[in-house]
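Input record, target 12 of the design panel.
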């Protein structure tokens, strides 16, 4: 083998750069020397250099191989005999049988050539013509991202064209006389067609259409058009037309700023569902860093009528919330401020008598007091909620809530906890808090003055963990007893925030089981519990928690809430099992001394490399205080099965056992390979209201991969080509 350097042959190496990128060949030549490797290099006459036998030219990341290269100084041309292979990294490969190029690399011709972009999009042509260092023209061309082999000589889809122009600077592909074929059958003819090449992330143009069929809107099609608005913004307009005369324009606007992002999603419709009405919705979201660790977030949600979001499948929300919030979290501090405007879309709720505007300010700081040790904290909260109604009594709706009641509350809290470990392993804990609350109630005939109250809280806790180890397992048994006290109060204040109460592992040993700040759990009570955990040597874990609350007397604070009411609460039992074969089983139940259940929830989940299964069963008895007039008895199932590298099946199903009917069901099929993606979904909503009827929704989207960036992850889906 001979190794030689020859200045004119630098142009031959830069051929690859000229064919596959807009880089200037002269600047490339000045940066790196070209290295020619060949079995034989000879000089013929005074103006020709010939390299033959396993010719290879290297420069930087560019590599070209050929069987023969001839440089003719008299014509200033490079004549290259194939097979020719040009590569530049992993993005572009050009194959050709022969080539003739000018040494300035701005013009040239390759015959029987094929260009592969991003290891996916293949462009095969009778000849490739290089023009002005920017454009590559391909004649009598076939383009496809599908794998072609002896077993499948015809690709799943292909685009035949008289000519394709690849603009390397704009990274666009222009097709003249394009014919789209599926399995060799012509489907569509397009005189002109423009598509982005695989290296382009964003460009203006049409996106993949979506076909949708619903009971109310009929069969329709969505055709998104993506518009770039500079490097940091874009707009997507999606006309939606259906057989039931819907005329809809969907919009999505995105803008990235140096300190945050802004997104708008919305739509405007005219349809037969509400004839003569203009229906619309708009959701705005934003997130910004405003300095010094503070983050500003906001979202605005609005809709023209209660059924629009569900009719068009935009959202299943039945309460809209528009929020502006500022927050900062540090190691020992937390600050949050938010204002939220609510709008209910539910049949049984009135936006006049529901709290429609709430404001909350929360500040918390943790510290270690030097003189008593342990851990302490200071918390300040400011809260207000407002109703539109000005009625100071409950109207005819009989919900026992004053229609116009507005509440403002300011609260400060000091809390402390310290634990001591005795020599016999007993862990003793002391905890307490002092709360300062000022509350003002307006538009309520029962309250005429503001109230200030100081509420102390204290508790003593005893834990005695036992640990037993053996070659087969480790057992941890921990009995817990906590005695808590909060003084009784004669002050009567409305309860608007703590209306949904739960008893679970998280608050079993808590000073307070009311989630809001308007009510405190009072009286003397004892929280007892037992926790047992087994860590098996084979990798599985079993945990059990059992506990209840015993009060010295029933103050009636939890009347009407199953599981919590009475002098003794129901038993709380929670079991969690984790097996090494990726199975997780969780059960939580509330039952009385007679094993009569108030609530029970069971959830199981199992996951493997290709299959994910999750199911749950929930039962809750009726409770008007929690807006649950009937017993809840439901089964849910969520599954996803990756059948193989190409097929993915999914099923989401919810069944109402109490009503003996399905509530919701969604079935999805996704098929992907190296050149196409097909997503098909069928969903059915069985429940109804005065605003929304039961409906079935069918969706289909077909996308051709390989145009535009972001498809490289699908390469592993290529079909086998054996045989």
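The sequence produced for target 12 reads:
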């Amino acid at each position: 083998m001979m190794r030689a350097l020859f200045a004119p042959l630098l142009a031959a190496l830069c051929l690859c750069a000229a064919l596959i990128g807009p880089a200037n060949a002269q600047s490339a030549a000045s940066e790196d020397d070209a290295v020619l490797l060949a079995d034989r290099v000879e000089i013929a006459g005074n103006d020709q250099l010939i390299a033959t036998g396993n010719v290879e030219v290297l420069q930087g990341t560019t590599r070209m191989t050929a069987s023969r290269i001839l440089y003719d100084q008299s014509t200033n041309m490079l004549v290259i005999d194939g097979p020719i292979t040009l590569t530049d990294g992993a993005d572009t490969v050009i194959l050709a049988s022969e080539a003739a190029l000018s040494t300035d690399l701005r013009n040239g011709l390759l015959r029987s050539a094929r260009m592969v972009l991003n290891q996916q999009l293949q462009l095969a042509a009778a000849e490739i013509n290089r023009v002005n260092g920017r454009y590559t023209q391909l004649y009598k061309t076939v383009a496809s991202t599908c794998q072609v082999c002896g077993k499948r000589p015809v690709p799943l889809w292909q685009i035949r064209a008289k000519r394709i122009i690849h603009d390397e600077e704009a990274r666009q592909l222009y097709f003249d006389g394009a014919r789209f074929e599926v399995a060799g059958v012509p489907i569509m003819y397009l005189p002109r067609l423009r598509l982005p090449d695989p290296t382009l992330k964003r460009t203006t143009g049409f996106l993949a259409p979506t076909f949708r069929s619903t009971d109310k809107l009929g069969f329709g099609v969505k055709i998104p058009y993506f518009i770039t608005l500079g490097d940091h913004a874009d707009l997507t307009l999606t006309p939606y037309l259906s057989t039931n005369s819907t005329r809809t324009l969907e919009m999505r606007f995105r803008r990235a700023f140096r300190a945050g992002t802004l997104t708008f999603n919305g739509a405007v419709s005219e349809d037969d569902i509400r004839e003569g009405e203009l229906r619309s919705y708009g959701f705005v979201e934003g997130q910004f860093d405003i300095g010094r660790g503070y983050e500003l977030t906001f979202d605005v949600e609005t809709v023209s009528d209660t059924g629009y979001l569900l009719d068009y499948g935009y959202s299943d929300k039945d309460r809209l919330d528009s929020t502006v919030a500022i927050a900062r979290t540090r190691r020992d501090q937390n600050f949050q401020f938010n204002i939220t405007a609510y709008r209910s879309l539910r049949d049984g709720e009135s936006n006049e008598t529901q709290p429609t505007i709430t404001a909350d300010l929360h500040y918390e700081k943790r510290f270690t007091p030097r003189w008593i040790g342990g851990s302490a904290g200071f918390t300040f909260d400011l809260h207000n909620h407002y109703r539109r109604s000005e009625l100071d009594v409950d109207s005819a709706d009989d919900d026992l809530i004053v229609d116009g009641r507005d509440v403002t509350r300011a609260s400060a809290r000091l809390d402390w906890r310290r634990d001591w470990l005795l020599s016999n392993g007993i862990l003793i804990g002391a905890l307490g808090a002092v709360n300062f609350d000022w509350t003002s109630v307006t538009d309520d005939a029962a309250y005429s003055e503001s109230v200030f109250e100081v509420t102390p809280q204290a508790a003593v806790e005893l834990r005695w963990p036992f640990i037993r180890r053996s070659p087969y397992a480790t057992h941890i048994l921990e009995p817990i007893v906590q005695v808590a006290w909060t003084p009784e109060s004669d002050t009567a204040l409305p309860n608007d925030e703590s209306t949904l109460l739960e008893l679970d592992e998280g608050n079993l040993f808590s000073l307070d089981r009311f989630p809001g700040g308007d009510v405190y759990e009072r009286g003397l009570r004892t929280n007892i519990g037992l926790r047992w955990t087994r860590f098996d040597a084979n990798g599985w874990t079993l945990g059990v928690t059992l506990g209840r609350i015993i009060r010295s007397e029933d103050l009636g604070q939890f009347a009407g809430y199953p599981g919590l009411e009475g002098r003794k609460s129901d038993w709380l039992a929670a079991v969690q099992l984790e097996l090494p074969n990726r199975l997780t089983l969780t059960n939580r139940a509330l039952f009385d001394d007679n094993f009569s259940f108030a609530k029970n929830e069971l959830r199981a989940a199992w996951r493997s490399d290709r299959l994910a299964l999750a199911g749950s069963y929930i039962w809750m008895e009726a409770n008007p205080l929690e807006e649950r007039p009937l017993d809840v008895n439901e089964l849910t199932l969520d599954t996803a099965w990756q059948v193989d590298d190409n097929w993915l099946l999914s099923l989401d199903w919810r069944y109402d056992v109490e009503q003996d009917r399905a509530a919701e069901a969604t079935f999805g099929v996704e098929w992907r390979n190296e050149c196409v993606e097909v997503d098909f979904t069928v969903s059915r909503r069985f429940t109804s209201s005065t605003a929304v009827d039961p409906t079935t929704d069918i969706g289909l989207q077909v996308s051709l991969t390989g145009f535009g960036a972001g498809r490289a992850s699908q390469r592993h889906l290529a079909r086998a080509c054996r045989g």
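The longest helix spans residues 25-31.
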